[in-house]
Amino acid sequence: MSQFVDECRREWRRLGVPDPIANEMAADLTADLEEAEAEGGTAEDVLGNSAFDPRRFAAAWAAARGVTSPPTLDSPSRWRRPMAIALPALVGVLVVGAGLLLLVGRRSSAFAVVTHRIVAGPGPIRLFGPGAGRIVIPGPLGRTFVGSGVAGVDVHPLAVLLLFVGLGGLGLLAVLYWSFFSGSRRYRRHDGPRTPGWN
Amino acid sequence: MGNAEGRRSQLLRGVLDLCLLAVMGDGPAYGYEMTKRLRARGLSIVGEGSIYPLLGRLERDGLVETHRAASNGGPPRKYYSLSPEGERALEAGVSEWQAARDAVDGALGLVKAEVMP
Under a CB-based contact definition with an 8 Å cutoff, are residues A27 and B27 in contact? Predict the structure, then answer.
């Protein structure tokens, strides 16, 4: 039974429960457990099914006394979950940002997709609209591209790749997050409490 | 019924605080002593949760008062007793429980009458 109290003490220490309060709870618990043992009883007689989960019991008791926050045992996963979303999202935003920087900052290696004539003026992004004639646009590595379509846009190929990967990744992340979040809500709604409310 | 234990726990969840307040009406008691009083009244917490977090909540809510005193030959214990606010809460809670119980009895009584030949 003292092992149960030791486990509780460790949990209270981990949760930052002040020593006087932890000592008081440990003393009360020890006295009750010893009394039950002297009467031939077990920890379960004193603690119910909490006797099998000292950490949860200790956290619930400390929270009930107002010395810790209620969802104490889940605290590591509470920050892991947002970080698991935030980090990939940050990478996605950086990739998209890099693509945008490349798009507006590297005109010299641009290539034309299709074109008939230039509509917009000078700048890193040039729009091509329908019209008669052909135009030759300088491309990467000294190559040139000859447009023959009806419209086009002058962009850096790596910028297109980065934007595609970044936006696609963010979209996929959003879908995964949404499915996970709605799944969690379903779990909370349909699954009953794992332990009674007073535990 | 497969989830009979779960249903029992659900039913007790809302009234165990009242039960604790009620056994405190017999006089100040420490944690395990209240567990024994509950058992003597036919309510065993084995298989259920512990009463300690609930006692902590009752204390925080001002429904019980506490003091330390030596038990019979044992170490000093924390004794819980009803505060005036706790007495009022017990009275109101018992009325609510009886009203809810009567309503449920009425509904279940109808079902039984329809099922019985």
Answer: no
Domain ranges of chain B: 4-115
Q: Which CATH architecture has domain B4-115?
A: Orthogonal Bundle (1.10)
Asked if residue B94 lies in contact with residue B18, where contact means CB atoms within 8 angstroms, the answer is yes
Lowest mean pLDDT among A37-41, A132-136, B13-17, B100-104: A132-136
Q: Please give the Cα distance from B4 to B22 (Å, whole number).
A: 25
Binary contact (A45, B46; C-beta < 8 A): yes
> Does ipTM exceed 0.95?
no
Residues, chain A: 199
Q: What is the DSSP letter of B29?
A: B
pLDDT given at position A114: 44
pTM for this structure? Answer: 0.57
Closest approach of B14 to chain A, Cα-based (Å): 8
Strand, helix or coil for residue A194: coil
Q: List, as one string, the DSSP characters of A132-193.
A: SS--EEE-GGG-EEE--SS-EEEE-HHHHHHHHHHHHHHHHHHHHHHHHHHHHHHHHHHSPP
- Contact between A96 and A170 under an 8 Å Cβ cutoff? The reply is yes
Rounded distance between C-alpha atoms, residue A149 and residue A115, angstroms: 5
- Helix A2-15 to helix A19-38 angle, to the nearest 10 degrees? 160
Test B77 with A31 for CB contact under 8 angstroms.
Answer: yes
With a cut of 60, say whether residue B30 has pLDDT above it: yes
Pairwise CA distance, residues A198 & B101, whole Å: 21
Mean pLDDT to the nearest integer, A69-90:
64
Phi, psi (degrees; rounded to nearest 5) at A48: 65, -150
> Which of A7, A15, A32 to mutate to probe the B interface, most B CBs <10 Å?
A32
Q: What is the CA radius of gyration of chain A?
A: 32
